Amino acid sequence: MGRKDAATVKLPVDQYRKQIGKQDYKKTKPILRATKLKAEAKKTAIDDIFGCLPEFAIMITKHCLLFAPDC
Question: Percent of the chain having pLDDT more than 70?
């Protein structure tokens, strides 16, 4: 009998997730779409920045090698 009672108790995390899911469901589709697009734009912007770093490093290295004073 103890097992049956223990199985019905929900974890606080599950209750929290369920509540958040209800809140998202209440939002209208345009708001959800805008939120999704904003998150995706933010992700691609970060990816673009990290994608340009190696090219920038090569450019700086070339500049230093070309314009460095002869020693």
Answer: 77
